[in-house]
Amino acid sequence: MLLSAAGCALALLLWWGGTRLILELNHAPRRHHPVSMLVATGLLAASLVGIARLRADVTPAGALLAFGCAIVVWGWLEMSFLLGYITGPRRTACPEGCGGWAHFRHALEAILYHEFALLAGLGAAAVLSYPGPNRTALWALLILWGMRASAKLNLFLGVRNPGAGLLPPRLQYLASFFRQRPMNALFPFSVAGCLALLGWLLVPLLSARLSSFQVVQGALLVTLSALGLLEHGLLVLTGAAAADADRALPRATS
């Protein structure tokens, strides 16, 4: 129980602190961005080396360090997008009145390079993790990618609180691909998928036959899944509740 609580607390701390740091760097003067990206790239390289070296480490520390490496990799991917370095071939808003498949194509063009970068990050984590038993970093990145893909689709289809105000000025054109509406047909399935994943990860933690490594790894992944579910919940909050939640729970919307 103590290991599970420690894993949950550290996962929350890394998520909160990492997201807050990225948002602060995102709002720093533009002249500081190249240095920030250079430092982040150095940390990315170190984290990729860490994932490879930790793949055979099945201790609680190994799970925690691998998870931390995954957060750094994801942070680099988020920074590269929010700072405008890796986005897509389209950097203008969608024409007024555009709809249907053309609208979807324009939205995909706006984030295409970033999507390729995400897949490259997942592929690198998969290659570096195998054939070792410690795949904490890979599972964490898969959860983050799945949750973010679901959130993007829901933003495109329409939610009550798209959070366009969180976008920096250089990415405001992306707001033209968000739609504000009470609900969309995908959202209930997204929430159901989040809950199913959370349950699938949580049930084994109730077993007394897990090793300490498995307990910590499970707690980390459960917390990450719960945070993904929470971010989906923010999409449908209204009015003052949405504003308060956006201030209290930083979201690196991309």
Chart the SSEs and their pairings.
Layout: H1 2-26, H2 33-54, H3 60-82, H4 100-129, H5 136-157, H6 187-202, H7 212-234, H8 239-248
Helix pairs in contact: 1-3, 1-7, 2-3, 2-4, 3-4, 3-5, 3-7, 4-5, 5-7, 6-7
Brief overview, please?
By secondary structure, this protein is mainly α. Helix content is 67%, strand content 0%.
Residue windows where pLDDT falls under 50 for at least 5 positions: 239-254
The biggest beta sheet is recorded as: none
Order of helices and strands: HHHHHHHH
Radius of gyration: 18 Å
Helix content: 55-70%
| SS-derived structural category | mainly alpha
Mean pLDDT: 87
Tell me the count of domains.
Answer: 1
User: What's the number of extended β-strand segments?
Assistant: 0
- Strand fraction equals under 5%
Principal-axis shape: globular
Q: Ends: how far apart?
A: 35 Å
Please tally the helical runs, counting DSSP H or I stretches of 4 or more residues.
8
What does this 3D model show about the protein?
With 254 residues, the chain is mostly helical. The chain has one domain (2-248). Helix content is 67%, strand content 0%. The protein has helices at 2-26, 33-54, 60-82, 100-129, 136-157, 187-202, 212-234, 239-248. Helix 1 (2-26) packs parallel to helix 3 and helix 1 crosses helix 7. The two termini are 35 Å apart. 36% of the residues are buried. The model is unreliable at 239-254 (pLDDT under 50).
